[in-house]
Amino acid sequence: MGFRVEKDFISWNYFFQLIYLIILLNFAIKVLWLNGGPGCSSLLGLFTELGPYLLSEDGSKLIKNPYSWNNNANVLFLESPAGVGYSYSTDGNLTTNDDETANYNYEALKQFFNKFPEYKGRPTFLSGESYAGVYLPMLANLIIKGQNNFPINLKGVLIGNGYFSQRLNINTMLTYAYGHGLLDEGLWHSFSKKCCKGCIDTCDIFGYVGTNTTCFNFAVQVYHAFTICISNPYDIYRNCDSSDLRQSKALTKNKLRGMFSQTPFLLKTLENFLIDVRFMGYTPTYREPNLPRAQPTAEL
């Protein structure tokens, strides 16, 4: 489904998918979900995280998700901004920024309520992950400011693994890596002495990004040391699922061929992306958690 969002003579067509509560109730809450990126489709959340059916590993079938959010709410998955997923711009211009995206998200949400007035007045939550840490607070701010003209019963904002600040993310990533013993001691102290006046806690590493300086090159070395040392950023002590990167790469390509055999252009694009098997800084994983503290239990 979709609707047109027009603002300042620019027209974006937003795609959305509404997943109804299993038992529809008049007082049922509504949850908006946005994936991050920026540029990630919210269908990723729908089919791999919180939707009623999840894609199997080979992409050949859907598997019922007992933990689907629509067990407790009506969930609206919105593709944002234009150019993400099935959302598009009528003039082909996909240039945007955070402020513009927030305004369009707000207009899209208002149009949703106008198109489905039965949801007006219901408790509404904004939710998302990653770069939604930027999208959602800005959207919530517009909703609050616009209450007099367009009331929305906003009850809260849910953000998982939020990317709130690029500066904060870069600065803390390196100190986190050092604090967990993932960086060479000599490299770290050399960087601290030459670029941070010996005080890493107040050092603005982000300030060197994009500069042709020795400190920027140091920062890149430290960053690569961090990304190479770990197989999964969400569990840095987890064993690698395959010590042979070529084997991991082959497994990944075989899965892609099975999932996208009918779309050769997309398949080729994804295979080219996997020239470096590491994805987003870590090796793809294929097994269940293999540490005692992460093993599933009856309570989970």
TrEMBL record:
Pfam families: Peptidase_S10. One of its GO terms (molecular function) is serine-type carboxypeptidase activity. The chain crosses the membrane at residues 12-33. The keyword Phosphoprotein does not apply. It comes from the Eukaryota. One of its GO terms (biological process) is proteolysis. Its EC number is 3.4.16.-. Keywords: Carboxypeptidase, Hydrolase, Membrane, Protease, Transmembrane, Transmembrane helix. PROSITE patterns: CARBOXYPEPT_SER_SER (PS00131). InterPro entries: AB_hydrolase_fold, Peptidase_S10, Ser_caboxypep_ser_AS. PANTHER family: SERINE CARBOXYPEPTIDASE CTSA-1.1, SERINE PROTEASE FAMILY S10 SERINE CARBOXYPEPTIDASE. Belongs to the peptidase S10 family. This is Carboxypeptidase.
